[in-house]
Structures are given as structure tokens and as C-alpha cells.
Amino acid sequence: MSPGPRTRDLLMGVRFALSGGREGWTRTLLTGVGVGLGVALLLVTTAIPSALAARDARASARSEHTAPTAEQPGRDTLLIGEADTRFRADEVHGRLLKPEGPDAPLPPGLESFPADGEMAVSPSLDALLKSEDGALLRERLDQRITAVIGDEGLIGPGELAYYAGDDRLRQLGGKVPRVTGFDNSAEPEPLDPVLTLLILLVFVALLMPVAVFIATAVRFGGERRDRRLAALRLVGADARSVRRIAAGEAMAGSVFGLVLGAGFFLAVRQSAAGVNLFRLSVFPGDLDPAPWLAVLVALAVPAAAVAVTLFALRGVVIEPLGVVRTARPARRRVVWRLLPPLAGVALLYPMIGQGDEGGEFSQWQVIGGVVLLLIGITALLPWLVEAVVSRLGTGGSVAWQLAVRRLQMSSGAAARLVNGIAVAVAGAIALQMLFAGVEGSYTRNTGADPTRAAIMAMIPSGSDAAGRTEAVARQIDQAEGVTRATALTGTELATTTGDPQRTAMLTIGSCAALREVAVLPSCKDGDTFVLDGGDDPAGAEEIAKPGRKLYAGAVYGDDTAEAVRWMLPADTRRVAARPDPNGEKRSGVLATNGAAPRNLGSSGHASVYIQLDPSVPDAVEHARTAVLKADPAITPFHLQDTEQSGRFVSIRTGLLLGASCVLLLIGASLLVSQLEQLRERKKLLSALVAFGTRRSTLSVSVLWQTAVPIALGLGLAMAVGVGLGVVLLKMVAAPVAVDWTAVASMTGVGAGVVLLVAVLSLPPLLRLMRPEGLRTE
Amino acid sequence: MNPAGPLLAARGLHKTYGHTKALDGAEFSIRPGEVVAVMGPSGSGKSTLLHCLAGIVTPDAGSIDYQGRELSAMNDAERSALRRGEFGFIFQFGQLVPELTCVENVALPLRLNGARRRDAERTALEWMERVEVDDLASKRPGEVSGGQGQRVAVARSLVTGPRVLFADEPTGALDSLNGERVMQLLTDAARSTDAAVVLVTHEARVAAYSDREIVVRDGRCRDMEHAL
Fold first, then answer.
1. Phi-psi category of A105—alpha, beta or left, where left has phi over 0 and alpha has psi -120 to 50?
2. For chain A, how big is the Rg over CA atoms in Å?
3. Taking every annotated instance into account, which residue ranges of this chain make up the domain ABC3 transporter permease C-terminal (chain A) (predicted)?
4. Which band of pLDDT confidence, cut at 50, 70 and 90, is reported for residue B202?
5. Who among B42, B94, B104 is closest to A684 (CB)?
6. Which of B15, B84, B87, B91 to mutate to test the interface with A (most CBs of A within 10 A)?
């Protein structure tokens, strides 16, 4: 059975796309590469959730957080101690292991337990430790490397991780987890509505420019196609028939793009292992798009290609003698172009203020509203470019005249060139405003003062408090770049033991150390003080009476040692508390070492505040190493004056990651699009050069042709971006403020990409101006 | 310089594209005010000869002398300046800038030479009047017929008062009536300004407008005047 006329026309279009010699192939290739880049980015974006889920699953599979535990050592028990560290800005995942029986659970990625003094490391950590750059870290992790952790034990290929065998864990008794397996099934907290909104917006703002770009790519080579269609009209094809042929051609190009896109995606997926963006790395196997999303992309892209082609052809009259006689197209009207952004605002408006009450936003309403607002840019920009360039004078240089006339004649093509970047910039501005507006809600002032102590080393309870803390502090104090290491130990005070109703805190240290927590007018060893103005004064007011007999240490009787009797000296003075370097105003009693109760056992807790000399390079690394050397079970905390929600930071990182990819894609697409337009004018450019036009004149003209629409596009993007940002801020009931630095930087990045593309397109432009372009044979 | 001598002369020109010899020892000369038709079959090297003579393409070997100046010794900027000031061009296709109006197209070479826009367009209109297309001044190339477009191109090629006019198949895309009209205007205008015309064509009726014919075959030139 022969195909019907419609199918026949579509197939003829497909044939045109695939045949037609070098010319036809170049056009199909350009469309294919353009669509392919977009498809690849869509697939990568749809694969990100699964990649993050896979990272979480890998982290859970090796976690001891909710793992089954045992009280007593057994054949299947493993002592596991947390020994995470940092090296410069990188986190290093570390665990100390001591198997207690032959069936002890082996962490994923290990084939056997490292013996005491040995360690298994991830490939990235192995490379770092072997490099000159990692010499400082090697001092800290000086165990013998005997094995490499397999992929199943890592959350990403670039992760720095190690497992070290350490027999000292036995001495810590019940102070480290004794596990019989690995698991972390703790449910993560649900996202609050503002974070959900941010995630939705990040996806919309990143995917919209990709969609716009794909729509642009399927129009590559439009002028030549129109001429070919005119030739078909000459031999008898009717107007409907040529539209179907064009649709077939676009479909073939987009299907080719789908194939290329799948190839690009596989290439990206394959090379993902070697990429470490924003300290995130992903195993190729984890980067899998959800099947339904992949199918959606495969169906939507060709359908969109056909729709865009037919839409683009609606204003073109293809006649047997060509399309050139339709020189002056009808003026664009602004009225209907305002409808999408207005509809977007109408969708978003009802949600204003909902974030304030912890209410939920309708996800589809948010997506619809933002998409419509951003689509508004693509609708308004051609009108804006046309309206402005039609008013531009052609006085001035020849380059300017050529550029303005070109823009006046084909303002639509110029607007298409910058649509993608304008949408991306508008989305980024709105998101930046929202991020800045809600940042305060996700940022906490810790009260810590990093200038007094950059690191607080927490010595785990169970260590012998007496003398041990001072020894650790002295050891750390010797490290390069450490200005001061101040040790403070602490324990409980109570009037009774067993089940005391009220307790107070006893802080012990040298006079210098105690001055970190109180304002001491005078102090000598043997002095004691009661703190006034602490954060939790209730216990101290009731218990800390000078001359009173108290119990110190294991007041709850839950430790191996017993609480010791201690009398608060009668000459104890009252002093004002001051925030410690961690920002906490302590309450209770302060005792210098000479006045402190003896034989407190291991019930106390201790910390060492480490002050660093900022002028010493890598001082923090030396300090971390000193801490680990002093005791691997010590956890160093880095004191920061502010702290941001991890999820908020992750979303922001995701935005940066995605925005980088989108900008790269848009840059590539702009370049392809620019080259395509230049290629169309090869003969004319050569002719102009032949009669003596300076190449610089033509180059500057091309730059003007890019600069004018991009200036208009970015202007519109700023307006829409700020407008959308205001609406979003009102939605989450955050104070409305325009972060002009962010607006300027986003706009600057957009302009920078375009400038870069313009500069990159100059060498091909110069090549196209060669006289060879005049040759016809 | 000998005023009676050739205005432009080429000796022993060689030019190869890939493995194809476009010119293989071609010789050529033209005197002021002379119209020389360069004829030959497709692919014989006619256009390459014209491009070499005009300094658009540099030959692989040989010399081109324009009023005592060796073209191959000039750099790209000097050759561009020469083409802007001393030479004029007409091609078969793709020569008018589609987005400029016809008068802007004609004025373009003057503007490239630094003329003010108003002055350039006034001179351009005078030339458009001479070739009878002044009524098309504000139209764009896409809005005029092929013959009208070629006459606009003739006006543009002459607007700077060139000493040599290079015309590569100027009537190739026109019907015979329009072709003859264009040739008539072209040669009349050139003669009135004493410009030499190098006319590449494969049509005998176009060549009939010339004073002398040269046939290019396999990259070599044969002067038909001397051959007779």
C-alpha cells in the first residue's frame, strides 16, 4: 500500500534532511548538534535526582548511624569510630575500625579489614596522598596504605575516604559504636515550602533556556529551506504540501538531534567520573534519567520541532518564485505578546504571602506561572527588538549602518539569537533575589568568634579528664601556625548523687583558660569563681553556695568511677561570664587546676580551643594534623560566625552547577547559530571584501548586530527577572529588596557569554570573507 | 609610466586549487578605456583570472602590474584600498547587501572611502539616474527585479570613478533584453569615464560589446585579436 499524500510529504522532508549533498548535511548536522546539546542537557538534568538518590543510598549502605548494634563483643561485632577530617576545602570521610570477631561486618568497598596501622583509601585520596600537594595530609594520615576502597564503598568517584585499622578503639569500651551491620534508614526531614519552591524554580529556570534553545536550533538553515520549498512550489507542490515537507525535514533534524543528544549524554555520563564540580562527583552508573522522563524527552523534542517549524512558517508566503518578495513583514503587535507574562503573574498572584504561614504552594501553579513569565520574554523580545531597531538611525559608521539595516530587516532572527540567554538571565536574577531574600531564614549567627579560636577540639568523654586535656593542648600548641591551645575540662556538680534534681556545671582550667569564659579581675592557681550572667544560671544559683559540700564527677552514678566529695571554697568570688570562643556563655562554677576536685575519673568532658596565626600558610591543616595525632577520636569543629542550612547550601550549589551547564550550552548554541547566519552570507561577505570593504568594518558590524539585541534582551531580562523576583519574595513573605549586585553580576555573566561567542565567531567570520567565497565552481 | 602602455598587465600567472590548475601561465593586458571580454567554457579559469587581476586572489606565480605597481607585492590592506578606490566590480549573484536600500548599496563604496553619508548618497543618486534606476532608491534589493538589481550594481561599480571595472558574468542571470540593456549602460558609462572593463562572459552577444576578446582555455589565455 502506498503512503498517503501527507505521509509522502513528511517522508520527502525527511529525505531532504538526509540527502542534498554537503549543503543538506551541514544544515541537518547544525540542527542535530543544536538539538542534541539541548537533549543531552535535558537528560543530564532529569538524571540528577537519581544520581543524588544513588549517592544517598551509597552513604546509607556504609553508615553506622542506625546500624544494628551489640552490647557485648561477639563474633559479628565491629567497633567503628568516626574520624572524618578536612583537607583545605575538601571533606575527608574517615572511619577507624576494629573487628571483634571473624564475622564482623565489612564496610562496602573493602575486601578485608585493614590491620592496626594500615588503611584502605579511595582512589582520589590515594592520588592526593601520593602527590606533593597532599604531603600535609599524609602527615595526618600516616598509616600504611594497603588497599583501595571499591566503588561500592564511595558516594562518588572523587570522594576522599579512608578506613584505618585501630586497636585503640578497644580501650574506648562502650564509647564508640559496636555494630553488627551498616544502615542509615533515618527519614530525612520534609522540605519546607520555601525550599520546595526554590528547587522547583531552579529546575524551571534551568530547563526553560534549554527548551528555548531547542526551538531555536530547529530553525537553523531556515532561509535556504524556504528557497528549496519555493523550488518545490515551482514544480507543483501546494502550500500545505510544502509545510508538511518542512515539518518532515524538521522532524528528521530533531530525531537526528535526539540520537546525537543520546550520544552526547552517554559521553557526558562516561566522563562524569573524571569531573568534580562544586566538590560533587558522580559515578557514571548513577547518572540514569528516569525512564518516563527519557521517553517524554524523546517524544516531546520532535513534536516541538514540528510545532515550532509550522509556527515559524505561518507568516511566510512560499511562492513558486521564492519568498524574497515578501520584503516587509507585518509589524509585530505587543498586545497578545503581553498575555503570557500577565497570565504568569495571574497564576502566581494568589500564592502571595503563603510562605509566611508554612503553607504549601501549588507546585503546578508555581511552575505554570514562572514558565509563562519566562516565555513572555521570548514573546516580547522580537517585538522590542523590532520596535527599537526601527527607530535607530543609520548615520555614523558603515559598520553601524550595515548592522542596523540588517537588524531592521531580520529583527526576528536577532531576537531568537538572544532569547535563550535572556530567559536564563531573567530566571537567574529572580532566583538570586529569592535566595538573598530568604537567606536570613536559613543562616544562623552562631555567636562563635573564629579569631579567638578557629577550631574547637572536643575530647570525647571516657578519656581520663585529669591531666589528659592539658597534655593534648600542649601537643597541639606545638604545631606550626597554632598561636594558642587552651584546654578546659568540665563535669557536673550536685548536692546529692544517684538522681540529683538540680546540677551545675564545673569548668576547670588554668587562669588563662578560664579567662576565655569569664571576666576575671585577678586569678591565681587555687582560686574558684561562680559565674554570673550565664545562659543557664538556674542550677548554679541553687547549688553553687560558697562553703557548701558538693559532689563532683559521676553524680548520676552511671560511670565506672564514683562521684567525689568536694567543698566549694568559702572565698569563691562571683565573676561575670563572657561568651566562650564557641559563643556560649557558661554558667556554674569555675575552678583553677589547683582548686579542682581530684580523681574525677572519665566522666568529664573536655575541649581545646585552638587559635591560629592567619599569616601562616596551611595553619589549619597543621592544627588538624596535631589534633589527630594527639588522639584520633578527637573531633575538631571549625568555628564559624555564621552557619547555613545544609539543604539551602545544596540547592544553591545545584543552581550554580546547573547554571554553569546551561550557560555553556547557551554559549555553544549562540556560536552555532551565529556561524549558521554567517554561513548564509558567505557569498555576500566575499563580494563586499572584493570591492574593498575592510574586514574590520564587517567584523565590527557583526559585533553591533550581536550587541544591540543582547543589550535589549538583557534589559528585558532584568525587568522580568526583577519583577518575578519581587513576586516570589512576596509569595514567601520575605522583605522585598532588589540585590542590584546580583542583578548586575547575572546580567554581566550573560553579556560575557555573548561577548565571548562574538569573539569566538570572528575567526570563522574572517575565513568566510576570503575571496574563495566568490568561486562558483 | 608610459601613458600609451597597458593600464593593467599580467604575465605568467599560475593558480592551483587543490589538484586543479585554474591558471597555467596566463597572460593579459588592458589599456585605459578599453573593454576586453574574457571568454571560455565553464571551469576554464575566467573568473580566477579576473580575481587575480583585481587583487582579490593572489596568484601562486607570475606578476600583475597596475600602473607600475606590482599587485603581488602589496599587502592585503593596500590591495583592499586599491579595490576601493581604483577598481569597480559587478558580479552575477549576491552582490547587493539585501538589508540596505538601493541608494545605500550604491553609496556603500563611497562611504567605505570615508565620504559623508549625505554626500555619498547624493553622488549615488546621480549614478542611479544615469543607469535609469533612480526611482528604486528607497527600495531594498529583494523588492526589485533581477535586471533592475544589476543596473543598481552597475551604478555601484562606477560610483567611485574606477579606472578598471571588473564584471563577472554581469548578465548571466538576466534575460536577453535585460542583459543587453545592462551591457549598453555598463559600456556607455565606462567609456564616458574612460574606465577599462574586464568582462568575463561565455555569451558571444555580451562579448560583442567589447573591443577585444580573450579566450581562456585550460588556464591559458589566447588573444583573439592577435589570433585573427
1. beta
2. 34
3. 202-313, 659-769
4. confident
5. B94
6. B91
Which helix (DSSP H) or strand (DSSP E) does residue A443 occupy?
Answer: strand A443-445
Sequence spans of domains, chain A: 1-61+194-327, 78-179, 330-444+644-777, 455-640
Test A401 with B104 for CB contact under 8 angstroms: yes
Q: Delineate the domains of chain B, giving CATH numbers in brackets.
A: 8-215 (3.40.50.300)
Q: Best residue in B83, B97, B102, B118 to probe A by mutation, most A CBs within 10 Å?
A: B97
Q: Which three cell numbers stand for residue A121?
A: 583509601
Q: Do A327 and B100 touch (CB under 8 A)?
A: no
| Percent share of chain B, pLDDT over 70 | 96
* Closest chain B CA to residue A397: B111
Residue A536 CB contacts under 8 Å (≥ 6 apart), including other chains: A587
| Complex confidence, ipTM | 0.76
The answer to whether A776 faces chain B, any CB pair under 8 Å, is yes
Please answer whether residues B200 and B186 qualify as being in contact, where contact means their C-beta atoms are separated by less than 8 angstroms.
no
How far is it, in rounded angstroms, from Cα A608 to Cα A592?
16
CA nearest B44: which of B214, B226, B227? Answer: B214
Cα–Cα distances (Å) from A461 to A699, A710, B137, in that order, read 72, 63, 94
Q: Is the pLDDT of residue A309 over 80?
A: yes
A157: phi > 0 → left, psi -120 to 50 → alpha, else beta; which? alpha
**HEC sequence for A362-424:** CHHHHHHHHHHHHHHHHHHHHHHHHHHHCCCCCCCCHHHHHHHHHHHHCHHHHHHHHHHHHHH
Q: How many CB pairs under 8 A join A and B?
A: 89
Q: Give me the residue label for grid cell 596566463.
A: B26
